[in-house]
Amino acid sequence: MIKYIFSIFLVFFSNQAVANIKSNLIENLKNIENISFNFEQNINGEKENGKCVIKYPKKIYCRYELSNQKTLISNGKSLAIKTKTSYFIYPLDKTPLNLILDKNFLINKIKETDSRIIDKKFINFKFVEDDNEINIFFNKKNYDLIGWQTLDIYQNLSITYLSKIIKNQNLDKNLFNLPKKHF
Question: Which are the contacts of 35, defined by CB distance < 8 A and separation ≥ 6?
């Protein structure tokens, strides 16, 4: 009987802890208009670094630290990737970033998806939407977004880690304008 009562007690407090984590994550996301961060991206073992700014909803600007001067920009509708010698533009809604850059979508997924704690430091949510499998990770201490894992538009595994996160800065209103195609 004592084991039964203890089990119920344990399940109750475990469920309460999960509800608190989700509530704190959601509250943190609701209070974010934009975030700036350094990133490391690993696509099939090839690593790239740089700096990004996300402005909700669905805008991103990333400058890669490579000799080809790669930038990635979304104006909320299209996603442009530009280097010194090439320029590609995609409909944002055909990429996993369309979902990751949508704060309200993330909040809804957090509400309806079970979470896992990884290494007692990270909170992970995994979901599939529009044929995109997305793993999203948050810091368990401060509930900040710290990364995601997706399949990119070429079906490559893409893992992105965030660091040095700064929230709600004043941003240049032209930052998310798509670049011109100049070579």
Answer: 53, 54, 144, 145, 165, 166, 167, 168
